[in-house]
C-alpha cells in the first residue's frame, strides 16, 4: 500500500517550530550555479554572490506548517556578480548546513528584487518561508 501520511496542523506546527532555534543568528548564502542534490552535498563550482543573516529570533510561530522569517539583515556589499539560483542556510557557526532552496523574484523559498547580482550592490530578501508540510521530508 502507498504511503499517505496526513499530518494535523498541531503536528506540523510543532515540527516547524522545533526548527527555528537552528536558524538563530544563522547565515543565508546566495549562490549561482546548479543547486546540489541535498543540503548535505558539498558545493561544487558554485559562486557565493551574497551573504545575509537571520536575526536572533529568525522566525515567528508556524502557521499550517509554514515558517515565515522575521527581518533578515541585508548584505550591504555583494561578494560577486552572477545570477542567483539557490541559497544555502547555515547555523550561526557558518559551517553547519540546514537547508537549500530556491531564489527568485516570486514563488520561491527566498524572494529577492532581482536574481541578477552585481558585486558591491546591496542584496536584501523580501520574503523567506519554510513549508514543513510540503517539504521533501515526506510530510
Descriptive terms for the model:
29% strand, 139 residues, globular, single chain, seven-stranded mixed sheet, mainly beta
Report on this structure.
This protein has 139 residues and is mostly beta strands. It has one domain (9-33, 46-131). Helices cover 11% and strands 29% of the residues. The chain is built from 1 helix and 9 strands; from the N terminus they run αβββββββββ. Strands 2-1-5-6-7-9-3 form a 7-stranded mixed sheet, with helices on one face. β5 and β6 form a beta hairpin. The mean pLDDT is 92.
How would you summarize what this structure contains?
By secondary structure, the protein is mainly β.
Fold blueprint:
Blueprint: H1 9-23, E1 27-32, E2 47-53, E3 66-68, E4 82-83, E5 86-90, E6 97-104, E7 110-111, E8 116-117, E9 127-131
Parallel strand pairs: 6-7
Antiparallel strand pairs: 1-2, 1-5, 3-9, 4-8, 5-6, 7-9
Amino acid at each position: 500500500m502507498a504511503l499517505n501520511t496526513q499530518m494535523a496542523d498541531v503536528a506540523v506546527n510543532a515540527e516547524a517550530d522545533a526548527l527555528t532555534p537552528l536558524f538563530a543568528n544563522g547565515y543565508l548564502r546566495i549562490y549561482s550555479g546548479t543547486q546540489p542534490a541535498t543540503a548535505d552535498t558539498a558545493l561544487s563550482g558554485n559562486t557565493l554572490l551574497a551573504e545575509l543573516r537571520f536575526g536572533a529570533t529568525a522566525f515567528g510561530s508556524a502557521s499550517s506548517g509554514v515558517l515565515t522569517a522575521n527581518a533578515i539583515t541585508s548584505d550591504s556589499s555583494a561578494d560577486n556578480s552572477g545570477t542567483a539560483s539557490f541559497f544555502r542556510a547555515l547555523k550561526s557557526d557558518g559551517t553547519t548546513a540546514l537547508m537549500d532552496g530556491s531564489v527568485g523574484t516570486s514563488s520561491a523559498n527566498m524572494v529577492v528584487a532581482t536574481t541578477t547580482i552585481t558585486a558591491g550592490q546591496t542584496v536584501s530578501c523580501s520574503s523567506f518561508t519554510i513549508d514543513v508540510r510540503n517539504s521533501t521530508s515526506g510530510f
